[in-house]
Amino acid sequence: MATEALVSFAVERVGDKLIQEAKFLKGVSRQADRLHRDLRAMQCFLEEADKKQEEDSRVRNWVSDIREAVYNAEDIIDMFILNAQSLRRNFFIKCGFKKLINRYKTGSSWNKKYRRRKEPFSWNQMLQGLRRSSPHAEEHVVVGLEKEADELVNQLIGGDLRRRVISLVGMGGIGKTTLAKKVYNHRQVVECFPDCRAWAYVSPDCRPRDVYMQIIKQLVCTSTKDQQVLEMVEKLQEHELGDFLHEHLKEKRYLIVLDDVWSCRDWNCLAKVSSNYHDCLGNVFPDGGNGSRLLLTTRDKDVALHADARSTPQEMQLLSKQKSWNLFCGKAFLDHVDADRYPPDLVQLGREMVDKCNGLPLAIVVLGGLLSRDMSHTEWRKVHDNINAYLAKEGSQTGVMTVLNLSYIDLPSYLKPCFLHLSLFPEDYVISTRKLFLLWIAEGFVLSAEQDDQQSMKVTAEVYLNELINRNLIQVVRMSVNARVVECRVHDLMRELAIRKAKEQNFFRTHDIEDPLSFSTSNSSLFSSKCRRQSIYYDMERYASVEHNTPYLRSLLFFNLGHEICRFSQLDFIGKCFKVLRVLDLEGVKVESLPSIVGTLIHLRYLGLRHTGLKLLPLSIGNLRSLQTLDVNNLKQVPNVIWKIQNMRYLYMEGQKYDIPLKIDTLENLQVLSGITFKQWIQNNSSKLTCLRKLKLKGRYELVEGVEFWKSIAKLRVLKSLYLKASRSLAFRPLPWTLASISLSWT
After folding, report:
1. How would you label 151-166 residue by residue, b for 16+ Cβ within 10 Å and e otherwise?
2. Which residue, of 225, 275, 305, 656, has the greatest Cβ tally within 10 A?
3. CA distances (Å), 651 to each of 282, 338, 654, in order?
4. Model-level pTM?
């Protein structure tokens, strides 16, 4: 089982909240400070336990207990703030504090016992056994790699004579090792490197000594007369093995395949590259100027670029529908050409199952091999109806989820919640990265140094996204003209992995019309009371009518996928049932009105109302003191209470019908302002908007005095992007020197 990094994030959030809110909670500051210190101490234990859960179920259970305790503390604090005036402060905080400390003492005691254990850590050994590759076990059925193989062969045997590192990059199961085997055994490659070829499997638990020994045994100790050399070599220390390998290779033209390199640090350890000199070629694999090559397979594009910045990584693509079907036929029917001679019902079921694999070769091969054992309609229908369970086969060498899970295990702790969050989106859903960044920020997943106002958290969120893309956990759908990711999606099987991990950690639940549990007549409450996030895909009116037993829900996302038009005359249940909600996204859901009770959600950080058909917002929205993002469009008018929400950072309000006064110059934390009119803008003191980085104005420019307008823009000292859509042309005046882009258009 993978680590539960969300515990550490919960600890961080509780600690931050205690610091921020303690000043408002008179009488509990001493208890709050003590709780914060103990949460920090608990986090230290978690950092060690996080790595050991795969080994021991008792550690896994302990981390689960700690997670529950931290969530309880978070709930207690949020409810305390919500009811600060009416509750008995000291009793309330002490009650939660006592529960938390009891959990902490249990964990501390277990940690001491665990340190005394001598058993070796077995998870990585098991993974090495499952994943260890060999160039001799070549696939007999290889589809769709002919072009890639030819290109790779040309890179290995041609080009300049410097030692080059050529990398195959792609998600787990996409066929990197298969392609590497194909070219390793290619006739031209064998002829080019006749005496000095070696294949080494690296593994997530990179051990340079083991890798060096794999290579040396293939290059040096190839016959019985070399046994004495082998015995001598096995006595050498790791650095001595590296030196020995260097001496053996320095006069030769060699090809070394390093299969499954996970991190830049692993490459540095293997090549002995100094972290201070990334351009250094390393002293284990010498550059003799004779055309030597290293071939890397990795899931992380950053590893490829780090190993050789002058070589372009070969990024592997998912198979097309036709190639996917051809590969499946070769495995299931054992026949590429005559698959159509099989019963039409099997062919139809097969095509539907192949579509579920979304072009991932490993999933197709596993599925085809499974179905080839029994060609009956009953068996194929059973697999068809439970395809995810069959593909998972947890713990099996061929289990798709076992292979994909390695990518999750390898994630740094700050990326794991971001990856799990992707499980909230429907299958094949195209995700706006702008929206994704704002959701991550509202959830507390994005951390910036000292929460520095000069460093936009959206920039940090974009860094997180790019890292997940480079690790092949997210697919790019659309790029902007300046090469930034605008839209993305998640492969179905990666989404399935995220769902499994999220459910293990009570991270979220979905409500789906196709989920029998959701429509059980015997179960009026749809979700566990411990559930933190919910995604609603279908039947939203039914969802609004059932009993809600999730008082500590933090995020509620609705997705109108076009199956029906849902109109809520009232949404009172949200304010009544989910009092500590942080994220509410109704984008695309037709909403007649937003009830004033929404204004009681004082913990709300994100409110998404785009494309809902709303024309007015209640005045109570000014009470949302924690709100960071308001995303709404096509209102008749924006209520002049936004100025009260002083924590606001991202304000989107395009398409206002009426140009009425709107005070916003109290929003000192505001970073993005989109949709304000020229007239509204000029009525505010722009010098107070000290954090504004992006501004989008539109409307009747003739209603404002030009010189004064440009002076107001010049006062924005950190502005980077300015978009103006005016009713007539504009005369330019001096602009902020920080401005990186400006866009003008006229109506």
Report:
1. ebbebbbeeeeebbbb
2. 656
3. 50, 59, 10
4. 0.81
